[in-house]
Amino acid sequence: MMPHVNLIGPNNFSEEVLNAKGPVLLLYIIKNGEYSNQYNILEQISIHFGPWLKTGILDETTNEFFKKILKIPGSPTYLFFFQGKEKKRILGVQDITSLMSFVSEALKSEDNEL
After folding, report:
1. 44-91: per-residue pLDDT in tens?
2. What is the pTM of this model?
3. Average pLDDT over residues 85-103
4. Which of 43, 54, 72, 92 could form a cystine bridge with 24, CB 3.0-4.6 A?
């Protein structure tokens, strides 16, 4: 299965994130030495969770816009949304194991609320 990471900008944020019926994991990151590594980890998450989890990366050309509206303190930041609302976030460079745990925990807590 090919990973599918959506590019999210101001024009499709509502459609892809706020109006999403299920969980969404977003990555806010500036282009630096960690960019490709963190993107690859996001792709692995996309493959692992498949259609159960939408993944996206915030368009770097609009980082300042998202930093302001989402109150993002630094890069990289992973944001977990469920049914259009932010539920959790994790700041800093992640490895596959820690990000997998973060997403699994977030999904489990949403299952318990349903």
Report:
1. 999 999 888 999 999 999 999 999 999 999 999 999 999 999 999 999
2. 0.92
3. 97
4. 54
CATH code assigned at 105 = 3.40.30.10
Tell me the C-alpha to C-alpha distance, in Å, between residue 49 and each of 12, 19, 26, 68, 69: 22, 20, 14, 29, 27
Of 94, 111, 113, 114, nearest to 45 by C-alpha is: 94
Is omega for the bond preceding 51 within 30 degrees of 0, making it cis?
Answer: no
Longest Cα separation, the chain: 39
Q: pLDDT tens for residues 6-27?
A: 999 999 999 999 999 999 999 9
Domain count, the chain: 1
| Other beta carbons within 10 Å of 19 | 10
Domain range for 105: 5-113
Q: Where are the beta strands (DSSP E) in 13-53?
A: 23-28
